[in-house]
Fold these 2 entries.
Entry 1:
Amino acid sequence: MIPVFRPCMGEAEIKAVGEVLKSGWIGLGPKTREFEEKFAAYMGCKYAVAMNSATAALHLAMTVMEVEGGEVITTPMTFVSTNHAILYTNAEPVFCDIEPDTLNMDAGKIEALVTEKTKAIAVVHYGGYAVDMDRVLEIAKRHNLRVVEDAAHACGGEHRLGKLGAIGDIGCYSFHAVKNLSTGDGGMVTTDDPAVYARLMKLRWVGISKDTWSREDKSTKEYSWYYNIEELGYKYHMNDITAAIGLVQLEKLDGMNRRRAEISKMYTDAFSSRKKIGLPVVKDYMTRPACHNYVIKTEDRDGLNACLKQKGISTGVHYIPNNNYDMYKKFRGATPVAGAVWKKLLTLPLFPDLKREETELITSSVLDFIK
Ligand SMILES: Cc1ncc(COP(=O)(O)O)c(C=O)c1O
């Protein structure tokens, strides 16, 4: 079977892990620090804090944006972690409908959902294609709301205003097995605010004021055992084995994203004359999509899915709108567009190592079925 996603790992990642294993420091330490510094520089942010997942990153982002007890305007078209993070923080998700073409939150529908309880807007750059951030930022400013970017799909992608994840108040990234930058599992939060950064550093390591690595004197190797606990934190930090993979993947990220864009273009060129297939849409503000996935829209989605499976091609559906799930049904916000369009969505295979023959088999199989 051709998988839908596949991590792109090589000898450099294997070597980097080997070096960390031999170094004697495999927990939260110098590689994690180096990854944070290089990631922040790449994103054009002042600070980055490495986590063990984007789910953890989103939870702490919601915590430090102080949404507790309030409402967060969010999208139903996402992996549930975005919305679970709102609930973890004792806030309520309010669902905003999506644009039928980009599948991103429809910025034109946000303002009608704002109440005096609204604390933040959580945007997801679906598939690595930017949300209309000019309009989101304008609404946030008018109502004094924080903007949390879930850039789990969007590592390395750009909006006219900057790198995805680095435009709002706080950005969250995923390094899960099949993401554009992968470490198996992992995540990052970026911010420009020194107070937010300091709090994140504590919260990600059970509330400890100074992590073990910072407590070692680097010249004498003497270790100071004293630390304070200032607030209830979580066991959410990254370790140096993960960070070593992340450092190699960060170097490769732009190249891997270019390959994703090339494959996406091959699909678009093959399908663009067929009216029966809706394709990913690039708006003028999406200066560089991260091309995390390639999602088509078609009436007989399930029929196409079954046909591709028979030909050895795996597909996916991203996503069932979150407010279709039992535990989310009670939350405010009607989303008729998401409720209709998700039934047409099918995710085709897309990863940097996908071979030309494989893309040809995929495009010809889709075209045969549509015919
Ligand atoms: C949009 C979105 N947000 C958050 C997450 C959670 O990421 P992680 O698996 O790193 O916790 C994912 C993962 O698939 C995602 O797609």
Entry 2:
Amino acid sequence: MPLLEYRCKDCGHLTEVLTGSGANEKPACEECGGKDTEKVFSSFSARVAPSAAASRCESCPNDTCPMR
Ligand SMILES: [Zn+2]
């Protein structure tokens, strides 16, 4: 299940959110409760090694690929 991270613009705390329900709403900061958070791509997309990224099926939209 994909894990999204939202960074609080107030305190910089990273709030991790499991996606899957299709919710696009930004979560409130779990540290200070602030609602000014922005999505960051760190865990999976951005920092993933090239070899790992290449192993993913490109014809499937997201994490539904049965070839994984
Ligand atoms: Zn915060």
